[in-house]
Design a protein that fits this description.
single chain, 291 residues, four-stranded antiparallel β-sheet, 44% helix, two-stranded antiparallel ribbon, 18% strand, alpha+beta
């Protein structure tokens, strides 16, 4: 992750401006957890050595993370990634397993290697302050391996991570769940209206979940041959036994969970209790200035 010269593509773009020498330069270089796999052909400017330049955020980038609507639909994250890691040309289509690593790399390039976080002890509720070394997390990702095959009986299912766009849709699924709970608890609605609105939300939630899982499947091998037609795969997921659906969904989710930023066995300064501390990748706080 040492500093390196400005890539030739950046120098060429800025060659006519006498202020080009004062433009941003790459702060660090990172390796993607996906190793550049699972990207559509024109979504990533692939590096020969597998390392990608990361630039610090500009003032405009920081403002993007303060725009609520852009944060909600993921557009802010997409624009900042394009600005800070130019090699990722279409961040919507980047595999979700790269997202956290990319955002952490951008934070390191902008604010430095350390990050202060707080957590309440689950045993005594004492508020603790800790400092994370983000570089060590990035380095640990070099050992990550995405398992892209699942054996389910006679079927071999070839999968890929969700794209960032699909992950954003999954986040909307969570909002839909909250909407369902709000409907059930709304005392101002009649029971008949509650049932109707609950049914509408539940159908939307179910369809979204099925579509996301189907889109994570590249191909299914059967004893009689292989199937990679998207419509056939979707039809299969819609009609497969629940156990098949759950196996695929759980596997894709577990691969993402394995690379999420978290700290194990932190100790409470008050009672000495040890606990695992997840770090929320919420852009509004994760990229808070001076944090």
């Amino acid at each position: 992750m040492a500093e390196q010269p400005i890539p030739q593509t950046v120098m060429k773009d800025a060659s006519n401006n006498p202020l080009a020498a004062y433009f941003r330069q790459p702060k660090i270089y990172i390796r993607l957890p996906s190793e550049g796999k699972f990207y559509p052909q024109d979504a990533l400017d692939r590096s020969v050595n597998g390392e990608y330049a990361v630039y610090a955020m500009t003032a405009k980038d920081e403002l993007m993370f303060k725009t609520p609507d852009a944060l909600m639909n993921g557009q802010a994250t997409v624009e900042v990634i394009k600005s800070c890691i130019p090699a990722i040309k279409k961040p919507w289509f980047m595999p979700s397993i790269d997202v956290d690593a990319v955002l952490i790399a951008i934070r390191i390039a902008t604010y430095g290697e350390k990050m202060d976080v707080g957590a309440n002890c689950p045993s005594c509720s004492h508020a603790n302050d800790y400092q994370l070394n983000l570089v060590s997390y990035i380095e640990n990702l070099a050992h990550f391996h995405y398992e892209d095959k699942i054996q389910i009986g006679p079927l071999t299912v070839h999968i890929k991570p969700y794209t960032y766009q699909e992950a954003t849709k999954a986040a909307l699924k969570s909002l839909e769940q909250q909407k369902i709970f709000a409907i059930v608890n709304d005392e101002n609605l009649s029971d008949e209206t509650k049932i109707e609105k609950f049914g509408e939300s539940f159908v939307k939630l179910t369809e979204l979940t099925v579509d996301i899982v189907a889109n994570s499947i590249i191909q299914i091998d059967t004893p009689d041959g292989s199937v990679n037609d998207k419509k056939m795969i979707l039809e299969f997921i819609q009609n497969a036994p629940k156990e098949v659906f759950s196996t695929i969904n759980d596997h894709v989710t577990s691969m993402k969970d394995r690379i999420e930023l978290k700290v194990n066995d932190v100790e409470c300064g008050e009672c000495g209790h040890k606990f695992d501390m997840p770090v929320t990748m919420d852009q509004a706080s994760f990229f808070g200035k001076g944090s």
